[in-house]
Amino acid sequence: MDADPAVLVPALLQAAGLTPSQEEVATMVADFPGRAAAIESLYAVREARYEEPDLVFRALL
Amino acid sequence: MYLTITDAAAALRAGQTTSVELTQAAFAVADAHDAELGVYLSRFDETALAAAATADAELAAGIDKGPLHGIPLGVKDIIATDEGETTAQSLILDRAWGAQGDAPVVARLRGAGAVITGKTSTMEYAIGIPDPEKPFPIPRNPWNPEHYPGGSSSGTGGGVAAGMFLGGLGTDTGGSIRFPATNCGVTGLKQTFGRVPKYGCVPLGYSYDHIGPLARSAADCAAMLAVLAGHDPRDATSVDRPVDDYTGGLTGSLAGIRIGVDPLLNHSTLTVPELAAVLDGATAELRAAGATVTPIELPLYPELTAATMVGMAAEAYAYHRPDLRTRWNDYGAGTRMAVSAGALIPAGDYVQAQRVRRVGQRKVAELFTEVDLIVTPTSACGGLKLEKLSFDDIIDSLHTQYWNALGNPAMSVPMGFTTDGLPLGMQIIGRPFDEAGVLAAGHAYQQRTSWHLRVPDLVAQALAA
Questions:
Q1: Do B345 and A39 touch (CB under 8 A)?
Q2: Under a CB-based contact definition with an 8 Å cutoff, are residues B158 and B139 in contact?
Q3: Out of B300, B344, B359, whose CB is closest to A51?
Q4: Which residues of chain B are within 8 Å of residue A43 when distances are taken between CB atoms?
Q5: What domain range is B344 assigned to?
Q6: Rounded to two decimals, what is the model's pTM?
Q7: Number of domains present in the structure of chain B
Q8: Calpha distance B64→B45 (Å, rounded)
């Protein structure tokens, strides 16, 4: 992920309509690279490339 | 009166005690220690004692509803009950939500004659860390009140350990039954996803949540699961499948059972040096019970742990977004940070987590062609110190989230102590819907050991007095 967390995180929070404190935003910015790395690890799972997601939608209730 | 459910049931039927005596004794422990331990959010003394008296009358008349009849149990306060409010330990939850009355799991316990003593403390909305800024008790570990009892089913775990009830309900989305079980030296079962209905429970992660039992033994958890399990159409994830016999297979023998062990020693920065030796001691007992024990390596360990944390955050955020926008400061600091993390997760990444879960299920199913059960430590260390507690450290310390990604049944049983005197737990995992195998292994282990019968000094001193 190339986007600057210091730009991306506040933008995402604003888009979500959330109003954390500056300190909380700073924590989220600091945590973001670790979270992004965890997400990237999900895409590195080779066998998942053509796998169906474990989501179930039923046409009948 | 520091009994297992199994022993209390026998004592009731032998006329050695009554349900009223058990319930009064449980409340007496709460009177003495709850101000310090923060187990209860609300107590139902009057209705509980009335239910206990009814149980005594029924048993005397030959009406026997099974092993939970007359047994005092606590209920985590994210699960709706007829009595009192359901708060989710939050200023946010609309109290009208809980007015729906007993969740199916509570109704089933009552139908089995159990005595519901009250609502137990939790982390706010089952996620976060204790928050002294909010008007709710701080839960403390009965083994050392300066330490965390684990969460989010903190009150149920601590209450069982302290003897404030003989068992109770918790919930588990990333470890919240097994974490207090390991930290408090009690037994806690997260059964297969969908085995126990979740209707009437405040959600955290819709595809990760479980309601399950905490008690002092695997046999006790088996007795509780026998009542809790079964389909309910009001829960879209509830599985319509016959309920197995969980107590009939508790023979004490593991002859013919193949157990794979992964000590996970390199998957936490908080692993205590004594963990390996304690786990070795535990697996030696499994061998002595007849099992074949071999080393294994869990596939995709960091990835499936990530799949739980990413998916849970996204699902929790969807539920909380309206309140996060308008009532940010009414949330506890730890909870709002944990659930708002979902706002930073693109929808496609949530879907990717669900694809990785299915890959993980296939790989672990392959592993289960070579073994019948898997064993790991439940956590890397004992209960963390409260004054330095952080959500990141909690997540780092746990080896539970992996199984919420997959849905397999997983149970924590006490296996010893750290050098600081804090409990450690062994996690036993089975194939989907093999709760009977998991419980049998825990029972066999507990037939050969006594960790699960140890009493915290806090309570032992009161018992001796």
A1: yes
A2: yes
A3: B359
A4: 352
A5: 5-307+335-464
A6: 0.97
A7: 1
A8: 23
